[in-house]
Task: inverse folding
């Protein structure tokens, strides 16, 4: 039997957009500050795209994607491509005949402005990337705007590279959309499929005429449980698209999980190629593909390098998978499991990283090398890459044996957890009575979610402390000055429960990761969260524990400045996992329990220091929900357990809050109830308080703070707007159990808008108190 296969190609579905120094973020934010020179922004994006193409080509990637680049979000780009522009955005920016007009309408949809609200934002499948939700209705007037994919293809072609343009597929686009407010009861965006497929057909012909040989259509919605009506729609849409005359070859890409019942539809279609994920739960695609008899003569792009995490791949195991795929397709090509958008750029950018640990990691640039190595091994045989495979095996063995990874004391404590550790001493009803007497808050109490604006001065102080140019005492004094000012501002606004503003925190996960054993914080591991918002997810290297208190000093200082309650602020265990790169050598439930125990120590220390309200945020609970229904019960069980483990060690009079934002909560309502937080605050402004009605229908028994201010937009909501939000909420939920707060933390906002909006928020709450 031959040890080689037909020539395979190395490819990727997408690559990080930001540039090595986050040039995209800086250029975009500069444009928002001064819109008079759009060419400056556009020139930066052209340069970034050229650099990406050259980097991928130099790394040995033989088929390079285009149109995966975005100024803000690729789903928003798809909406613009199809002309799915809500009327309010058309009316606000009616003239798009100039670059400035196009940009201003685009960013009005993304961020809103003084006149108009943006599109709703939610999480992209089970990642921490946020996409803009298209708004569609029966009257949506679709019209193809092919400028972006054609222009970006032409840029690369002129540089000597024939790329594979990437498009959000028509079925996924509609499944990700929401009905517009005036769409009418029972309207389903998928009903519009026959109206957008001709636009895709037109674009395919235009791309072929421009020289495109392949086009990638991303359909990640197929890795979710889809009913027969969706599979029928998929079948019909791609029967139409594959019948288009003079089209490029079509590669349908799925990722993040197993493809399930959609596989026979893809196999039996006239698609030229299919891209499948073979990492984690999606490894089941191998058995399913074998059982289905393969893809016939179709091209298979095999995602065998994890594009969702940063650990160096087991090259031998990946080659095993690739070799098992021989004979199941006309040709097997090699890729990451999904776009590399979800991992940092390059391990080589990390400063002061231990070389041993660096060898355990693979960021986007290193994953290119893994893909190229695996492609060579599949084509030329294992002997051709034996040195690389053996060296990787040695590194994996060294990682497994490292004392950084396994700490017996942490494991023994986690094994000793009992059911009693997972429950508060009394049920909510009794706790509520005690907390009401202790806190003495008004009806519809007002608060914020935690952070206040992160000013340039605060960032400079943290940078100076790291650089050694600011001594710790001076840093402490600067942070205390900021906390004192934040407390005074909140008292002036008239807020009822205050926060210290978190001036000392760089990020709600990284801040804690830097203080927990078992975590590694990066210096340049930036990953796009949404728009110009980038985060540096820390890495969980080994068993997690808390060496010393992390927040008590800040919280107690803030509480000493006021008679009003000040919230202690922590990030919950599920979010500490979800917004980190998690170790892949043990079940996530085990890691979550270790983090929960570390946080439990912090919660009880805060209580002992006199903090009466403690918020443990879990914004990632929904986003980490497995994409397949069969996997969800187990996840929700350990996710709820870890939250309760972290919060159940306090007395009845200590009020536990939690916070969630930007997700579809319907699938986790029972888990939210089971978490048994005294108060939960939720994103609600963009969705017009819809979550409040959902909680009411679910008989949510505890207290709720639906967000009345969308802090991801620069808009300042008026008293009347906030009042209307509160009236909607009080119409469906008992006012006695409602709080008033923004959607999320205020770190990305400026002080002028914060002052104006929080003044409006307090005024609206006081007004509604007199009417309920």
Result:
């Amino acid at each position: 039997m031959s040890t080689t296969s037909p020539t395979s190609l190395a490819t990727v579905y997408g690559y990080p957009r930001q540039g090595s120094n986050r040039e995209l973020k800086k250029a975009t934010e500069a444009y928002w500050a001064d819109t008079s020179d759009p060419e400056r922004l556009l020139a930066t994006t052209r340069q970034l795209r050229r650099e990406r193409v050259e980097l991928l080509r130099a790394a040995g990637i033989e088929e390079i994607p285009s149109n995966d680049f975005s100024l803000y979000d690729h789903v928003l780009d798809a909406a613009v491509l199809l002309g799915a522009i809500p009327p309010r955005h058309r009316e606000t920016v009616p003239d798009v005949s100039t670059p400035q007009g196009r940009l201003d309408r685009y960013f009005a949809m993304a961020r809103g402005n003084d006149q108009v609200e943006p599109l709703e934002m939610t999480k992209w499948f089970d990642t921490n990337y946020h996409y803009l939700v298209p708004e569609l209705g029966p009257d949506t007037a679709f019209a193809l705007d092919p400028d972006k994919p054609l222009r970006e293809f032409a840029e690369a072609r002129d540089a000597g590279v024939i790329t594979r343009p990437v498009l959000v597929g028509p079925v996924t686009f509609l499944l990700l959309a929401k009905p517009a407010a005036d769409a009418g009861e029972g309207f389903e965006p998928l009903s519009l499929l026959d109206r957008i497929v001709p636009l895709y057909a037109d674009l395919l012909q235009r791309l072929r005429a421009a020289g495109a040989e392949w086009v990638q259509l991303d359909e990640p919605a197929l890795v979710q449980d889809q009913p027969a009506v969706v599979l029928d729609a998929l079948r019909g849409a791609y029967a139409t698209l594959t019948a288009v005359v003079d089209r490029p070859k079509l590669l349908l890409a799925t990722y993040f999980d197993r493809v399930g019942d959609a596989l026979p539809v893809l196999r039996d279609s006239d698609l030229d190629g299919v891209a499948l994920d073979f990492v984690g739960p999606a490894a089941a695609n191998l058995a399913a593909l074998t059982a289905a008899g393969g893809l016939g003569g179709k091209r298979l792009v095999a995602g065998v390098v994890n594009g969702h995490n940063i650990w160096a791949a087991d090259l031998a195991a990946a080659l095993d998978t690739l070799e098992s795929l021989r004979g199941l397709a006309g040709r097997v090509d090699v890729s990451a499991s999904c776009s590399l958008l979800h991992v940092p750029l390059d391990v080589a950018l990390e400063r002061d990283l231990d070389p041993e640990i660096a060898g355990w990691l693979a960021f986007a640039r290193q994953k290119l090398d893994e893909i190229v190595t695996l492609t060579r091994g599949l084509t030329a045989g294992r002997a051709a890459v034996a040195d690389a495979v053996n060296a990787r095996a040695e590194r994996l063995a060294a990682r497994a044996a490292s004392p950084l990874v396994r700490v017996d004391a942490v494991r023994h404590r986690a094994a000793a957890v009992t059911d009693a550790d997972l429950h508060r001493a009394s049920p909510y009803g009794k706790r509520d009575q005690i907390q009401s007497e202790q806190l003495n808050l008004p009806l519809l109490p007002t608060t914020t979610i935690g952070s206040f604006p992160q000013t340039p001065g605060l960032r400079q102080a943290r940078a100076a402390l790291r650089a050694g140019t600011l001594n710790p005492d001076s840093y402490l004094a600067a942070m205390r000055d900021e906390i004192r000012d934040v407390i005074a501002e909140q008292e002036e606004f008239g807020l009822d429960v205050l926060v210290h503003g978190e001036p000392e925190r760089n990020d709600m996960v990284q801040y804690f990761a830097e203080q927990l054993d078992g975590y590694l914080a990066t210096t340049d591991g930036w990953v796009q969260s949404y728009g110009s918002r980038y985060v540096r997810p820390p890495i969980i290297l080994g068993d997690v524990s808390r060496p010393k208190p992390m927040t008590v000093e800040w919280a107690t200082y803030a509480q000493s400045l006021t008679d009003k309650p000040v919230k202690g602020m922590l990030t919950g265990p599920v979010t500490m996992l979800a917004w980190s790169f998690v170790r892949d050598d043990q079940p996530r439930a085990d890691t979550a329990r270790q983090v929960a125990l570390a946080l439990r120590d912090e919660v009880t220390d805060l209580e002992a220091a006199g903090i009466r309200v403690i918020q443990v945020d879990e914004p990632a609970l929904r986003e980490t929900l497995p994409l397949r229904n069969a996997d969800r019960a187990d996840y929700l069980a350990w996710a709820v357990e870890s939250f309760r483990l972290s919060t159940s060690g306090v007395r009845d009079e200590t009020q536990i809050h939690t916070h969630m934002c930007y997700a579809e909560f319907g699938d986790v309502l029972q888990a939210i109830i089971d978490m048994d937080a005294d108060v939960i605050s939720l994103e609600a402004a963009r969705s017009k308080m819809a979550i409040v009605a959902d909680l009411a229908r679910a008989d949510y028994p505890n207290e709720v703070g639906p967000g009345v201010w969308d802090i991801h937009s620069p808009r300042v909501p008026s008293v009347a707007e906030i009042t209307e939000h509160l009236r909607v909420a009080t119409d469906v939920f008992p006012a006695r159990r409602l709080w008033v707060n923004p959607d999320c933390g205020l770190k990305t906002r400026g002080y002028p808008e914060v002052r104006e909006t929080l003044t409006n928020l307090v005024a609206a709450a006081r007004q509604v108190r007199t009417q309920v």
Observations:
- DSSP finds 28 helices and 20 strands in the chain.
- Residues 1-5 have pLDDT under 50 and may be disordered.
- The first strand starts at residue 65 and ends at 66.
